[in-house]
Structure formats: C-alpha cells, structure tokens
C-alpha cells in the first residue's frame, strides 16, 4: 500500500539521518577572505554539525531545496552516477496538486496523490553520499558555497528546539515554491484553510464532516445550522473552481443521502473579486459559471475586507457567515525568498537568466514558483503553474548532467562547460474541472515564454 510505502520511506530517512548524525564532522566553510575564515573558525568552535565540502575524487554535490513539481522533476532526472544529491525540504513527498481538491471529499484517498521522495530519486535512501533532510533552509552564503538549515519540528510537542546545521554545495537549486497570498487581510491566516498541502485537505475533510455531525445536534437554531453548513471558497482560479465543483458533487451524491436531517441547509458560495477562471477564454468562463450555478454553487463578486472566526465581511459591508472557509487567491513570493541576497524579478521572485541561473553568484539556480526571469532578459515572468515548474526541472536536470559530463560539476568550475540552449517555455494549455464529470480545456497558446 502507498501508505505503508510512505511509512517505510520515513523510516529509511530516519535511519539515514541517524547514520549521518554519527558520522558528521565539524568543519569550517572555505573562503579566500581572512574575515570569512575567522567567522568560519568561530562557527566551528560553536560545534555546528554539517555536510562539509566535497573533495577531489568525490562526486559533486547538488543541493535541491524543495519537493514540489520543479524540485521533484529535477531530482528524478539528475544523473546520480556523477552527482550526490541532497534534498532539503519540510516534506518528504511530492503532492500531485491538480487532484488535491478531490481528496477533501473522499473522491480520492490522500495516499493516491503523494509520492515519497525516495521513490522519485532512490539515491537519497540508498547512496552513501545522498540524503533527504527534513529541514528548511534559513540562509545561504554564496561565497562559501554553504547553506544554513534547521530541522522541521512543527507539531512535535516533545522537541525543544530545531537542530541547526550547514550543508556545503557544488550546485544549489532553489525550488522552494511560493506561498498563498492573503493581501494583508486580517484574520485570513488564523481562520481560513489554504488548499496547497495534504494536511490542508485533511483539515478540510475533518472540518466538513465535523460540521455535518454537529449540525444534527438537537436544539440547534436554524441560523446556526446554516452557518455550520455554509462552505465559503474565496478565489475563482482553477483551485477554487475545482474545489467548489467537488464540494457540490459531494453534497448531491453523499450528503443528501447520509445526512437527510440537514441536507437542505448545506450550501457552497464562491467569492471572486473579478471573473472566475480569468486566464481562460471568455466562452469557457461562461460555461464554467453556468455549470457551477447548475450544481448549486452561489457565485458572489466582491472583495473580502475582514475575516472573523465565524463570518467574513465584504467590501460592500455584507456579512457572510461560514462554517468552513477555504482560501485560494493565488500565490506570491515567500518571506524566505524575499530575504535572499539576490536580484529579484519584477514580481519579487528570485531573478534568473535564460538558463535558470542566478547571475549574481556562481553555481546557484532557481526553478518553479520561486523564480522569475530578470527584466534584463527581456522575457516575461512565467505563470505559477505546475507545467512551468515541471518543464524547468527537466531542463535544469539536463543542463546539470551535461555540465557534470563536461567536467564542470564541482563548485566554481561550471565555466568550463557550455550551458547549451536557453530555457524556452511552450504553453500546452490549461484544464479545470467544474464537477458533475465535466471539465474545461483551453488550448490557446500562451502569450508568455
């Protein structure tokens, strides 16, 4: 079973981490500057563990930050006969995000859309020099070719402090994605659920079923029943539309049969500031609107101004009570990406050139939602889509493999290898489901690339 595979994967990672812990050595990052060397000695005295620089005769080390579409495709295609791979990420699996909405209502099980990193790239659990590290990157020193990391301990009550360590790299790839946009609206982070990870879908399913059961408690007022069973989705992009469609199917197929006492109270409202599926052709948008309304979804055009524990307030003053609030209004650069000492693209992502390199430093690349073309390239910033990230991961793996075979795999030696043709993106189309076994496909060519 996939769930057992996940457990075995976690066990292997734990063993690998244990072996790593027993064999680590204290080391000082290399630097030509005397000040940097003095700082490194100070760090060594403080006893930071870490993976030291590779030496002559060893494989070059590629450090990948993230296990999303970009990072996972890169990991899959990297040639581990010439590279050691170290993946640093706060989750040990890749999520097939287009099907995430289906897991919220039981159409699919969670294990069906999660693939362990150790299955994507077996080297991280089998090769002596390759690791998966359940951690997050907190800083980077491009001159020393090192990154600072700390272990992820979210939800672990017995863990006092995260463990801090360093990892030296020959090639560093930022594939750490983006984060959900809240536009600074008060209460969103505290009261809404973002549909981006498996644990988000699990929380949505838990909250939905809990509200259904609570609404059957005797003595509950009709107003409270309607609030508990009001599911509000904010954001009319593909994720918001697909979740609304899945939810309306769930209501028609399951709720009306199994929760007959409250079947007339449950409803779905989709709130969008402009038009739903704004990137699609106007005829497809109209078709999606008609299908959602036919499925019982209420469409509201408005801007959310405030989110409170049991209700949200729109810009026109209307109050919308809710029992479940799902927030899906797009993504933007994370605070970590904003803090990095690199030039940024116009939308705040890590700026890259046509070969997905960070041009201000050596041996550093960025792919996926955390990256964007610099203005100097003359290219538009690509949309935050899975197909963009996946294609960038494939391209960069090919570039790095070619670099390694040309003898440029180790740090500060990539100048010896020809990077080859630049990255070119060709849009293959967009698709969104709208429930009731219906979907839209827009095959128009993208205007960016």
Automatic annotation (TrEMBL):
Pfam families: Pyr_redox_2. GO terms for molecular function: NADH dehydrogenase (quinone) (non-electrogenic) activity. It is a peripheral membrane protein. Its EC number is 1.6.5.9. It is an enzyme of class 1 (oxidoreductase). Its cofactor is FAD. SUPFAM superfamilies: FAD/NAD(P)-binding domain. Keywords: FAD, Flavoprotein, Membrane, Mitochondrion, Mitochondrion inner membrane, NAD, NADP, Oxidoreductase, Peroxisome, Transit peptide. It catalyses: a quinone + NADH + H(+) = a quinol + NAD(+); a ubiquinone + NADH + H(+) = a ubiquinol + NAD(+). InterPro entries: FAD/NAD-bd_sf (IPR036188), FAD/NAD-binding_dom (IPR023753), NDH-2 (IPR045024). It comes from the Eukaryota. Belongs to the NADH dehydrogenase family. Residues 61-393 form the FAD/NAD(P)-binding domain. This is NADH:ubiquinone reductase (non-electrogenic). GO terms for cellular component: mitochondrial inner membrane. The keyword Membrane applies. Alternative NADH-ubiquinone oxidoreductase which catalyzes the oxidation of mitochondrial NADH does not translocate protons across the inner mitochondrial membrane. It is found in: Mitochondrion inner membrane.
């Amino acid at each position: 079973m996939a769930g057992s595979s996940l457990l075995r994967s976690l066990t292997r990672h734990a063993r690998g981490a244990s072996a790593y812990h027993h064999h680590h050595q204290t080391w000082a990052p290399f630097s030509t500057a005397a000040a940097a060397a003095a700082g490194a000695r100070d760090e060594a005295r403080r006893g930071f563990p870490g993976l030291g620089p590779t030496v002559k005769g060893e494989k070059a080390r590629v450090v990948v930050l993230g296990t999303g579409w970009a990072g996972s495709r890169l990991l899959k295609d990297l040639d581990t006969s010439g590279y050691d791979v170290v993946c640093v990420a706060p989750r040990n699996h890749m999520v097939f995000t287009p099907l995430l909405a289906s897991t919220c209502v039981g159409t699919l099980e969670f294990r069906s859309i999660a693939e362990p990193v150790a299955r994507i790239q077996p080297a991280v659990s089998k090769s002596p020099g390759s690791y998966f590290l359940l951690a997050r990157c907190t800083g980077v020193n491009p001159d020393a070719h090192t990154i600072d990391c700390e272990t992820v301990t979210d939800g672990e009550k017995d863990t006092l402090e995260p463990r801090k360590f360093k990892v030296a790299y020959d090639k560093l790839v930022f594939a750490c994605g983006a984060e959900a946009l809240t536009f600074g609206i008060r209460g969103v982070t505290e009261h809404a659920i973002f549909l981006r990870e498996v644990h988000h879908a699990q929380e949505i399913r838990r909250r939905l079923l809990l509200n259904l059961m609570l609404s059957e408690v005797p003595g509950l007022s009709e107003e409270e029943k309607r609030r508990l069973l009001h599911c509000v989705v904010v954001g009319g992009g593909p994720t918001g539309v697909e979740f609304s469609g899945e939810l309306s199917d769930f209501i028609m197929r399951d709720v009306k049969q199994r929760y007959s006492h409250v079947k007339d109270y449950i409803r779905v409202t989709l709130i969008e500031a402009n038009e739903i599926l704004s990137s699609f052709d106007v005829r497809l948008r109209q078709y999606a609107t008609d299908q959602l309304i036919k499925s019982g979804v209420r469409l509201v055009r408005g801007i959310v101004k405030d989110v409170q524990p049991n209700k949200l307030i729109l810009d026109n003053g209307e109050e919308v009570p809710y029992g479940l609030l799902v927030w899906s209004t797009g993504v933007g650069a994370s605070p970590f990406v904003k803090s990095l000492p690199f030039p940024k693209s116009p939308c705040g992502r890590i700026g890259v050139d046509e070969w997905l390199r960070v041009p201000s430093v050596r041996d550093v690349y960025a792919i996926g939602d955390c990256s964007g073309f610099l203005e100097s390239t003359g290219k538009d910033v690509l949309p935050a889509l899975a197909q963009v990230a996946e294609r960038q991961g494939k391209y960069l793996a090919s570039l790095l493999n070619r670099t390694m075979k040309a003898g440029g795999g180790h740090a500060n030696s990539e100048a010896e290898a020809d990077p080859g043709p630049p990255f070119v993106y060709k849009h293959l189309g967009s698709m969104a489901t709208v429930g009731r076994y219906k979907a839209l496909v827009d095959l128009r060519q993208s205007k960016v690339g």
